[in-house]
Amino acid sequence: MTASVSVQNASKTFGAFTALNDVSLDINAGEFIVLLGPSGCGKTTLLSILGGFLSPTKGRISIGSRDMTNVQPAKRPTTTMFQDYALFPHMKLKDNVGFGLRMRGMAKTARDEKALGFLDLVGLKGVADKKPHELSGGQRQRVALARALAVDPDVLLLDEPLGALDLKLRRQMQDELKAIQKRVGTTFVHVTHDQEEAMAIADRIVVMNQGRIEDIGAPADIYMRPRSLFSAGFMGEVNFIPGTVVETDAASARVETALGPMTLSPSAFTTGFPIRNQAVTLCIRPEHFRRAGTDEVGLVTLGQASVTGQAFFGTHYRCHLSPLAAPQMSIVAHMPQSATVSEGEAVGLAVSALDVVVLPSQRKDA
Can you tell me which family this protein belongs to (predicted)? Predict the structure, then answer.
């Protein structure tokens, strides 16, 4: 069973500190949502409010159209999976998975059968009689997931469950977690500060900052078409280039920058078409730069830049560039692994107008 979740104008204050500031969010039944942001952004506070461990200072929480704002955690159709897993060391795996069922009064034969079914779901049925200390970190994570799902929650809340794993195992578990969520169909709400993890598992990402939602959308939309400077910068490396809108018509806007003029279509302006003389910021990902002179259609030439540093990353060279027209500016660009790039070399830069996102100028942390 699964359910939709609705957060309506939720705020949470601790004395003079506002941890959550008028947040509204609708989550579809069966959706995998990731709350993403830096430490202190409010994501864990929001998860705790959904689980009933905190009450909102104001606002309303509903799950499956039922008001859950002041309902205790034990009476909510939710289960929370924490980073430390909290498995019982003296219990066998099947007893750990069946513990919640035992607390609900299910007979031993029935709960053992159900526990074995969920251990099978996570690939651990064959070691059901082992104890947690006999398992690897990844296996313990799977047991914790099986235990959380065994009680048939409408919504599973995951508080950075992969944070204690090493990089290789974390990536493996991301794939497994997503596959299991698709199989069981339960609504998942997952908290992380890891951008790569969010993009690997989420149906939609909710980017949070200073207690507010900055951006929300599918991973590709958040990365390629961000709607705030904070979201653009947090979701990966990006070059921020200041500009001014000098001319507009129904089909385009001409923006003057230190790298030269660019004519952009309305689709480049993700928060609305600008007005004349408006200060804007162009957002260009390092991988979107091209060398001038290629025959790719739609490229805008940005002039020459000097290579001030470069490092080989396997899939590409990560280059620091200083534009000759704006030597005070530093640009990061990815060049193909086959490129021959050396410090001091001058390269011509270009970018596809379709890859440029333009946002109103403001502080990145606003």
Answer: Belongs to the ABC transporter superfamily.
The CATH code belonging to domain 238-360 is 2.40.50.140
Pairing of the two strands 204-209 and 212-217:
antiparallel
CA–CA distance from 276 to each of 232, 280, 324, 362 (Å)?
24, 11, 27, 17
Strands laid side by side in the 17-27 sheet: 17-27, 5-14, 58-63, 66-67
| 350-366: pLDDT as tens digits | 999 999 999 998 744 44
Laid out side by side, the sheet with 289-291 consists of: 289-291, 346-352, 299-312, 316-323, 331-336
Residue 176's pLDDT is 87
Where are the domains positioned within the chain? 5-233, 238-360
The pTM (predicted TM-score) of the whole model is 0.90
Nearest residue to 6 (alpha-carbon basis) of 187, 264, 208, 260: 187
Given CA atoms 227, 229, 231, 235 in this order, what sign does their dihedral have?
positive
Q: What is the pLDDT of residue 334?
A: 93
Contacts of range 144-147, beta carbons closer than 8 Å, 24 or more positions apart: 144/81, 144/82, 144/85, 144/86, 144/87, 145/81, 145/177, 145/180, 146/97, 146/115, 146/118, 146/119, 146/121, 146/122, 147/87, 147/96, 147/97, 147/99, 147/100, 147/118
The domain made up of 5-233 has a fold known as Rossmann fold (3.40.50)
Count of residues in the chain: 366
Residue 155 burial (10 A CB sphere; 0-12, 13-18, 19+): buried
| Residue with tokens 């607390």, as numbered in its chain | 103
Which residue shows structure tokens 């790039």?
Answer: 341
3-state SS of 57-119? CEEEEEECCEECCCCCHHHCCEEEECCCCCCCCCCCHHHHHCHHHHHCCCCHHHHHHHHHHHH
Low-confidence ranges of the chain (pLDDT < 50): 363-366
Strands 155-159 and 187-192 turn out to be parallel
